[in-house]
Design brief:
By secondary structure, the chain is an alpha+beta fold. The chain has seven helices and six strands. A hairpin with a 4-residue loop joins strand 3 (202-206) and strand 4 (211-217).
Amino acid sequence: TSMEVVLHYRPHQRDLTKLQKFAEAAVKEFPIRQLPRFVPWFPNDLYRLPLKPKKQAPVISQEEAEELKHFSTPSEYGTGSPGYDCTKNLREFQSSMKRGPTLTQAQAVHRTINLDYEGQPPPNGKQKLKRSWSVSLPSAKLKENILPLSQELQNNLERLKLHAFYRGRWTIEQSICNNQNLEDIWVKLNRLIKQNELPSCNATIQRSVGQIWIFCDILYCEYVRNILREKLSLTDKMNLLVHKYGVIFSL
């Protein structure tokens, strides 16, 4: 095969020898470099990983797997009698479940009440009171109605070097319930939380000590306290407690 090459050059570049070499170099086949074989810079052996978990993954029995299927059926959430306790059928809030032989002791230590005795006294005659949780969802609409913190609370935060997003805890006891039952207060409180009227809040009823704990960011604590007083008809003052700092404010 032949190839015709047209070479353009400037008048002062009339050296034919150089022009010929330049043209030959221009049509020379482009060299292709052979890439070396890829070698990873990390161990490529899945059985010899440099990092290994300290403990083996948890193992559940076949019976436990069947119970999980039972609790994950859609009918569990769509039917049944109405109630205010949204944690009734959530496994992580149950006190005890039947365990298969492969469960570890650490997994079973937190399960103190068998579900078989729900709704009736246990065989030993001792009734253990459970606690329940309720958690709010974030809502941007409420922030427009929240006023700045009072000067007293701001001074306390500055003195203790606490940030406004520290979590605080209000405590409701029977003595401030204004002749209402603690369970009735819990029902009303759950309704407020589900309707997103209490920003950043989650609450738990500690039936064993006769108290309801409401956790919230200090930034919203005064707003939350005013809503609790108005909606739940609470009397007397409540103390705001912060972990490791104790009571930092009363309202």
